[in-house]
Amino acid sequence: MSHFPEFEVVPAVDVQDGEVVQLVQGERGTEKTYGDPVAAAEQWVERGAQTLHLVDLDGAFDGERANAPAVESVLDAVDADVQLGGGIRSVSDATALLERGVDRVILGTAAVENPDVVAEISETHPDSVVVSLDAKDGEVVVSGWTEGTGLDPAEAAARYEELGAAAILFTDVDVEGRLAGVQTDRVREVVEAVEIPVVASGGVASLDDVRALRDAGAAAVVVGTALYEGEFTLAEAKSA
Q1: Is 1 within a domain?
Q2: In this structure, what CATH number is given to the domain that contains residue 215?
Q3: Per-position b or e across 135-154, b if 16+ CB within 10 A of its CB
Q4: What's the total number of domains in the chain?
Q5: What is the pLDDT of residues 180-216, one digit of tens each?
Q6: Cα–Cα distance measured from residue 171 to residue 73, given in angstroms and rounded to the nearest whole number
Q7: Residue 175 covered by a domain
C-alpha cells in the first residue's frame, strides 16, 4: 500500500465560499473562518504535513463543486499529497480531478448510492479512491449527515474494499467538530473489518485523542478544529 506507510496526522482544509472554515457537527451556520485556503495549505505543508485533507463543503451540501478555483490554487501551491472530497458525484468528476493532480478522491454519498462508481474509478486509476463512511449512532449516514442508510460501518467498509477502495475515511459524526474527544471502539471495528488503511476523522481535541486513534489501528487521523484553534501543534501531533 503506497499511502500512509507510517501513521500520519493530516490537517483538514475545509473550504466554504472560498475560505477555510470548521463546522460543528457538520452544521452550516456553526462555522468559524480561518482565512485563505492556499495560505492554510502552505502553512500545514511547511509545518510537516505529508497529506492534506481538502474538502469542498459547498460541494458536499449542494452536490456541485463550488470551490473549484480554490482547490486548483491549492493543488498548484503545495507539494504534498492531496485527498479531496465534497461534491464528487460521478466517475467523470473524479477522473478529471485525479488528472488535474489530486492524489485521492473522497467519495461519500456517491459511493453509498452507487457503489460501482468505486470500481469504475479504481479500474482506470488504481489506489485513488477513498470511501468516506460517516457514522451516527452506529449507522452510516449520507447527504450531509441528514439521512440514515441502515448500513453497518464495518460491513460497508469491507464491501468497498472489495470494490477497489484504496482507503476508508471513517468519521464519527457524534463527536465531529465538538472538541469533545473520540470514540475508539467504532474505529477499531472498521479497522478490523478491512486490510486497507482506515483514516479516522472527527472529534480530535487532544494529543491523547491522536494517540488513541493510532492505537485503535487508524493509519492516519484527520485533524481540523484542534489544529486551527491551537489545542496542539502539528509538530506535537507528529511526535506524539
Answers
A1: no
A2: 3.20.20.70
A3: bbeeebbbbbbeeebebbbb
A4: 1
A5: 668 888 899 999 999 999 999 988 889 999 999 999 9
A6: 26
A7: yes
Q: Decide if 107 contacts 125 (C-beta within 8 A).
A: no
- Cite the active site residues: 14, 134
82-85: which pairs have CB atoms within 8 A and are 24 or more residues apart? 82/51, 82/52, 82/54, 83/10, 83/51, 83/52, 83/53, 83/54, 83/130, 83/169, 84/54, 84/55, 84/56, 85/53, 85/54, 85/55, 85/56, 85/60, 85/130, 85/132, 85/169
Cα–chain center distance at 48: 18
Question: How many alpha carbons lie under 13 Å from residue 173 in its C-beta half-sphere?
Answer: 20
Rounded Cα–Cα distance for residues 119 and 91 (Å): 10
| 3-state class (DSSP) for residue 14 | strand
pTM: 0.90
Q: Please state, in angstroms and as integers, the Cα–Cα distance from residue 61 to each residue in 28, 132, 170, 212, following that order.
A: 9, 15, 18, 30
Question: Is residue 203 in a domain?
Answer: yes
* Average pLDDT of the residues in 32-37: 90
Tens of pLDDT, residues 74-110: 999 999 999 999 888 899 999 999 999 999 999 987 8
Grid cell of 173 as nine digits? 459524526
Q: Is residue 2 part of a domain?
A: no
Tell me which residue range forms the domain holding 219: 8-239
The C-alpha cell of 2 is what?
Answer: 503506497
**CA 11 to the chain's CA centroid:** 10
